[in-house]
Amino acid sequence: MSLQEQYGLQGTFVILAIAFGIYLLMKPFTTYLLRRRLIELGQWNDQANRSLTEERNSLIENLKWGLILLFTGIGLIVVEFLPYSFNSSLPYGVISVFTAIGFLVYYLIVRNNTKSST
């Protein structure tokens, strides 16, 4: 029995979870390095502080990840009901399409929000 037959999509999601965990660990560190470099160059001001703080606390950022996770979950549910073989790449395509739809919905919401605020 091959690894693909034994683990299927679970292996893919474990790898994605590990990659996301690494991202979550590296993001504060890279923000710290950026902040330190700006201070060293004398470019640190209230605007730089505000932009780094806003990036962290943005409600739109939370909306983005909520929509992406929602649509990825919908894609996983749809894959569960589709007939496919272990050698098929159909599940990856369906999940990718639903994730992309989540990004598009987020983009449309942000675009409409910026149009209405200007």
Automatic annotation (TrEMBL):
Its taxonomic placement starts with: Bacteria, Pseudomonadati, Bacteroidota, Cytophagia, Cytophagales
- List the protein's name: DUF6249 domain-containing protein
Domain DUF6249 positions: 14-110
InterPro entries, per this entry? DUF6249 (IPR046216)
Keywords from UniProt, A to Z, are: Membrane, Transmembrane, Transmembrane helix
Q: Which residues cross the membrane?
A: 6-26, 65-84, 90-109
Its signal peptide is: none
What is the native source organism of this protein?
A: Nibrella viscosa
